[in-house]
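Running this now, will post back.
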Amino acid sequence: MKFPSRFSLAAAALCAALSAAAHAETLKQDPRLQVVAVSDVRPGNVAVAADGRVFATFHPLGASKLQLAEVVDGKLRPYPDMSVQNDGAAATDATLDTPLGIGVDRNDRLWVIDMGLKFGKTRLWSFDLATGKLARKYELPAQIAPKGSFVQDFAIDEARGWAYLADIADPGIIALNLDSGAARRFGGHAALRAEDLDMKIDGRVVNFGGKPARVGINPITLSADRETLYFGAMNGTVWYRLPARLLREGADDAAVAAAIAPAGPKPISDGVATDAAGTHWFTDLQRHAIVRLGRDGKLRDALRDPRLQWPDNLALGADGWMYLSVNQLDRTPSFTGGADSGRPPYYLYRFRAR
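Update: finished.
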């Protein structure tokens, strides 16, 4: 089967047209977008607990002595305390190194994926929000996540005890058994790789590492019943689906590959949230927007605002608020090839999703 499918062609044309339109018009601030927290340091991803507590990582492409924080009085404060922050010191097993992806499961556990860009090991941390204590830490074996991996997003199935993680360095999906700690990797499939499609923000082609960005699998989510895994490339216009049981049950790569199917179109995006109704919410990097993919297979704008200069990820709260981090990532040296042109402060926002 050849990927991308017809969804890609239609979505690519739509993205190009919408990007051109976005550049041609002047966006106005949307009053529905509310400030949750302000930071002088670039945030990474954001997560929200059932009781409304908000957490965030600090982005590894920025410069921060802190790695993990909770929003307190509109500011990002170390979580659970300074004991797990590296505070500018050398990386150790006792402290966070370069975390990015973050999420809260239905058991009130805060999960953080630590890419280990300096430490050389990928680790998944789990904190008990009731006590603020580290509940468990998983270290992915080198054959699953070798040094140089960029495992930056994940989805947790707390009911069955599985985590599904996305690696963009060598595009692949890692399935981790949370009970045994055993992991398997699925890679080599076209659906995991970037399309040959330029990302344009404010009329400029965005580079990464000195050439036009081509970023593979990034956003990854699960359906509400945890049976369907969804994923797509950042530089991609197709949203894919896969029965999660195939990874849980150890199906071979051929069977997993054969089961991957398009779920609909998507914009060039960094983050996504999938709600209980099956709607997928994407950050639209090119258009300073959040868009949603409904069950009818159509993309629609949810919100557009000039303040959304690289909306990084999304997290849906139990009360219907959608939280997002905005970090001007395209202005970091990794993208510009020069100085950091980001303009602090940086923000966490929210808006009503329902």
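Residues 6-352 form a domain with the Neuraminidase fold (CATH 2.120.10.30). More later if anyone needs it.
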